[in-house]
Structure of Tripartite tricarboxylate transporter substrate binding protein:
Amino acid sequence: MELNRMSRRQALGHLSHLSAWGIAALAGPVGAQPSASAFPHKPITLWVPWPAGGATDVCMRVLADVAGRHLGQRVLIENRAGAGGTLCMPILQQAAPDGYTVAQLPYPALRVPWMQKVLWDPIRDTTPLLQLSGVTFGILVPANSPWHSVDELFAWAKAHPGELTVSTNGVATTPHTVMEALSARKGFSYVHVPYKGTSEQMLALASGQTMVGMNSNGFAPFVDSGKLRLLATTGEQRARRWPTAPTLKELGVGIVANSPYGLVGPRGLPAGVVQVLHQAFRAALLDPAHVAELAKYDQEPAHLNPEDYGHALRDAYAAEKRHVERLGLLRAAG
């Protein structure tokens, strides 16, 4: 009997030990699960869909530097230029939803899927983080150009069909679609010369490789230095930096174009990670160093939180379909 009692006590002791070990073993992995409080524990990569050295790239580098200080980890810039600013989408589509890969989302990413077949979807394959700012656009000519107004430009283009060369920052970008609308309304044809980004395009325009250029307000240094002449802008109102340049709207063309942009992550980012990234990049967006950099290009912060930015992206995506359809550029279904 004593042997049986001892055996039972020993058995219970072993069971107690095993139970405690089992609970600890189960609790261990749960406690080791990644959490928002542990994020980030390594550098974050911010993909910029434009070449290094352009206005957007420079602003993004200032933003990344400040955000890195708030996150306690470096934010590394990687450039993937080309295809009208859409080459970051395949990267996001294939990235793990862990918060270590984010990208700038420019407006062409909301337009291109309506114009050509792509394997990604700008709404389905992203998690909105925040809207940052937005750009307007301008029509520019070299400083030695004979044209001093868009009316002179349009008149020459109508009198010389197909001879006008116009550069933009890529196929299906906002400058490209605006030029398509202008040529249709004003009855002229032109040769489109796409570039990968603003700085490359502006250098080519200033040297006379094309006759006209249209791009975002990254043209600022070239206009301010006298290398290019700004004929008109596409905003609702005249630009504060260049108040003598009229808008296309006031010239009676009836076109207003601007492109908000922001940051997104891959599809399925955890809410806690979204919150950490949003807070850090919002602080960076409003930091005086970043605000001053935006001001060089006549821009200012235009913050939207993740939820509001998501709504704005969905509305813009639907609006771009209607816009592309009006231009006759909507791709066939399938």
